[in-house]
Automatic annotation (TrEMBL):
SUPFAM superfamilies: alpha/beta-Hydrolases (SSF53474)
Gene Ontology cellular component list: membrane
Protein name in the entry: AB hydrolase-1 domain-containing protein
AB hydrolase-1 domain ranges (all copies): 20-117
InterPro entries: AB_hydrolase_1, AB_hydrolase_fold, AB_hydrolase_sf
Length: 237
């Protein structure tokens, strides 16, 4: 299904009936990334999968969009579909949006389930990466990123380069203390993208929260281990 939100075409899908669980995928994913998990959830709940702008079948965002604008799209989607308040599941960047949604639009969120949200930014950039950013025309820069940084999210989704650059500078950790809804935090102890230490820190910041760590699993926890995630999610909901 398609809907128009803030002038953008947004694609989504609804599975099952009952109370609503909204699934927000990570950067570079789509609603297909969380489909297996959503299908399990849809046995008891209404599972709503959304393609974030720039991914799946949704229209590209404006170049100026960052976390605020993406969150506003999700909020307006819930309002337009008359789905709130809902349970929200977010993975990685989708977890960041879920966190921000609970802070900026608390009436829309009933409970949060966060899987390795990339909410905290920091650290020094590699000197060569900085050189690539400033020294070469865009086509050459993309080629060099592909050679020297083959796993770079910037290289994988060049059409979202301005958005990605803005998002990775936005640290929303200071707002997390404002979250008041019950929160379940899920993390793989082998996560090399967002370290599990961020999960432990998040659990201390959010008052009514619990942390569950999965051994031997990396950042793709809900994508590759949906059955394990579903068991924890079902118990929490």
């Amino acid at each position: 299904m398609l809907t128009q939100i803030h002038g953008k075409t947004v694609s989504f899908e609804v599975l099952g009936k009952g109370e609503t669980v909204l699934f927000i995928h990570g950067w570079g994913g789509s609603r297909e990334s969380l489909r297996k998990l959503a299908e399990s959830v849809s046995q008891k709940y209404k599972a709503v999968l959304i393609d974030l702008p720039g991914f799946g079948r949704s229209e590209n965002p404006d170049p100026s969009w960052g976390i605020d604008e993406y969150t506003a799209i999700v909020a307006r989607f819930l309002q337009k579909q008359r789905l709130s308040p809902v349970y929200v599941f977010g993975h990685s960047f989708g977890g960041t949006l879920a966190l921000y949604l609970a802070v900026r639009y608390p009436k829309l969120v009933k409970k949060l389930v966060l899987c390795a949200p990339s909410y905290k930014r920091g650290g020094k950039k590699a000197p060569f990466a900085s050189l690539l950013k400033n020294a070469f025309p865009r086509p050459i820069k993309r080629l060099l990123y592909g050679i020297f940084f083959p796993t770079s999210e910037l290289y994988k989704y060049p059409h979202l380069e301005p958005n990605f650059r803005k998002i990775v500078t936005q640290d929303v950790s200071a707002d997390m203390k404002l979250i008041t809804v019950p929160t379940l935090i899920l993390w793989g102890d082998k996560d090399s993208y967002v370290p599990v230490s961020h999960g432990r820190r998040l659990q201390k910041i959010i008052k009514d929260s619990q942390l569950e760590i999965f051994k031997g699993i990396g950042h793709g926890l809900p994508v590759y281990e949906p059955e394990k995630v579903y068991k924890s999610l079902e118990k929490f909901l």
